[in-house]
Amino acid sequence: MTDISTAAQTSTGAPSRAGALAATGAATGAGAASGTGAAADAAGATGAASDTGAASGAAASGSTAAATGATTTTGEAPAEGSAPGGRPQTERQRQPQRLVSVDVARAVAVFAMFAAHIGPPAKPEGAGHLLVAFDGRAPAIFTLIAGLSLTLSRGGTRPRPQPAGAWRATLVRCAVLAALGLALTELRSGIAVILTFFALYFLAAEPLARLGTRALTAVAAVSVVAGPVLSYVLGPYFGYRVTGRGRYPGFEAVTSWPGFTDALDTLLLSGAYPWLTYFPYVVVGMALGRLADLRRTGAARRLLGWGALLALAGHGLSALALGPGGGREALLRAIVRGHAYAVNAPDPVQAVLNRQAGAIPSTSWAWLLVDGPYSQTPFETVANIGASLLLLGLAVAVCRGRAMETLLRPLAVVGTMGLSVYAVHVLARAELHPHHGWPALGAFCGVSLVACAVWAFVFRATPLRRGPLEWALHAMMPKPAGRPPGARRP
Fold this sequence. Notes:
The protein is mainly alpha-helical and 490 residues long. The protein has helices spanning 17-29, 39-46, 56-60, 62-68, 91-94, 100-118, 128-134, 138-152, 166-185, 195-208, 213-234, 257-270, 275-291, 299-322, 327-338, 348-354, 378-398, 402-407, 409-416, 418-432, 438-458, 468-475. It has 22 helices and no strands.
């Protein structure tokens, strides 16, 4: 996992890979309460969530739920109005429960973000193999889980109609996330804050949430290839043929017209997590929530199977294309023509990618064959989707047992407060300037586990149990103008 913190840059500078992962971590860790909606998904990418995202509030604030985290039942729900033994249900019993497995997967992605920002270099030796496994994948995992959370907050495999006012709720949530992202960027922590990108993702996800399952799945499949290809094709027209990608916006985006247009360029095409190449993860997560009921027996097995297949396909086909297919020779020729600075580097291809935080340039179509971290190619996207499914499948399998679910509950709590954990970690890095290494990584993870557990216990009977920023995001949510048929009061 290459540390890009040293290369971090704002819209006007070069981004840091640590920043990129941090941003992604932010996105993942930060999910807001499940009871709200699509904008929450954005937060969900960052990790927070409410107790129930499926109820009417979740529909109206579907953005919020996603932002706060995935919410769905952990098992077959009893008949409405009755408990398993036929006893009348309380209001709390009638509310869907969170999927602990999804929160656990999100928390793992949060810790992977920590590893990128304050952990040791990712080297294939000893414990470093674990860091290598997550190098560049945390952003993708966070983003995919955000899309999954958005779908779960709106009914999952049985989507519910959205009430009037859902769009207004989404706009409010996205505006708050964007403002928070810009503010965190101004801390100059060296982290490529992802929250502003997430605001755009979830705004774009709102109309897709209304598509049928087949149409949504088709859009997801097409976007995995179309997004990276469009990014490659459009790059030269906007001045990014050789370099210039990997940026992230700051407050200049809202203080001047040139800053605003530059921010749009950054968010859509040239940023650390541009919409063209990272939004496909959101759409894939949304489609997954429609196609797979994680409560069902066999869900873990299917996730693990498809995850392994996609990961092998992404990395395996890239290796074949670059090796026997002659792709690497084409890249070396392109480097001689357009990247003279990298010709004498130990690894010329990697030297070019490092110049813009891993993103490929547009000097040869062969760049689309690579699968390196943050390269934003079809092969990397497919492999990252596979890794995300593997993590989700493992989490679902482990959490099947009541004992393991209870044991992993503290980790799941971190996943529900991702937005707060992410924001605090950006602040801590900006103010403390921790020395990268295992001690710092262990301290950040340990403090997060303890702090989130204490917070959840102290405020267990209040709305603050969501987490400080998750609660604030939920509180700012407009009241739904109406409720979809069958929805209950939270």
